[in-house]
Amino acid sequence: MNWLISLNGNRNVLYNMVNFMTSPHFSVYEDSEDHLGEAYFLNFNHIQGNDNVEEVVSAVKGLIQLLNGALAIDYGFNQYKRYVSISVDRIFYSDKRAPRDSDWSEVNFLDNIPASNPFIGDEQRSRFVNPFNHKTTAYIQLCTDHEDIFNLLRQSSVGFDWRNLYCIWDTICYHSNGQKDAIANLKLDDKKVNAFTGTANSFGVLGIEARHGVRGWAIPKDTIDLDNAIDIVNEIVSKYLSKNYPLNRK
């Protein structure tokens, strides 16, 4: 079975995916009909030949999740938030080996199916495909072998509210042997970190957006707004990845 996925998203992001990113796992290409408007498609090597619709849809959702996380880290959280996430428009399938336009049929995207680990089939094996030429594809490649990156990409894909930002911080702390070691080893500004965690935990500051409910705690002396919190956690993730997975060594 052949599969084809059309994408929605920011034109500049999709353009960069077409022209500058190479990966053994996926490719994005532009194929406009009669040049009336731009149309972007995802070719996902791992699902080609698979005839289980639920497996395919789940894997596609998983890849889109990882892509959005990697793009968010690459562009920076606040900038990528303004771009809006990449999403699936439609999924098509064909049982023809070399399908023509009329051979494709649309499949229901099945909203109730959760995202899963997308690497269920074979990647493209070619010495000409180097995912480490671009940060986004490098992080996708690294997450196939490293659970911490896999989880950070997934977490970075679902938005940047206070609770999810703190979840990202928890992941960094866990893989850094605790908060104190994370601050020391990543050379973080502990005042900024404490302002972030104090604000995120405070029901008195954030109300129902806080990580905790009513605890009777005093309002922290140092607090920050959400944009600054996003920048702080973005910096923490960047420092963690740069220290543990320096891409210039690839």
Key words describing this protein structure:
alpha+beta
Secondary structure class reads alpha+beta
Radius of gyration: 20 Å
The SSE string, one letter per element, is: EHEEHHEEHHHHHHH
Strand order of the largest sheet: 2-3-1-4-5
Number of helical runs?
10
Q: State the separation between the terminal residues, measured CA to CA.
A: 34 Å
Instruction: Label the overall shape.
Output: elongated
Quaternary status: single chain
Assign a percent range to the helix content.
40-55%
The average pLDDT is 92
The beta-strand count equals 5
Low-pLDDT runs of 5+ residues are none
- What fraction strand? 5-15%
Main sheet specs: 5 strands, antiparallel
Could you describe the 3D structure shown?
- By secondary structure, this protein is α+β, with helices and mostly antiparallel strands.
- 46% of the residues lie in helices and 11% in strands.
- The chain has 10 helices and 5 strands.
- It has helices at residues 11-20, 53-75, 77-83, 135-142, 147-157, 162-175, 179-185, 190-201, 203-206, 226-244; strands spanning 2-8, 26-30, 40-44, 87-94, 105-107.
- It has a 5-stranded antiparallel beta sheet.
- Helix 2 (53-75) packs across helix 3 and helix 6 runs parallel beside helix 10.
- The radius of gyration is 20 Å and the shape is elongated.
- 32% of the residues are buried.
- The model has no long low-confidence stretch (mean pLDDT 92).
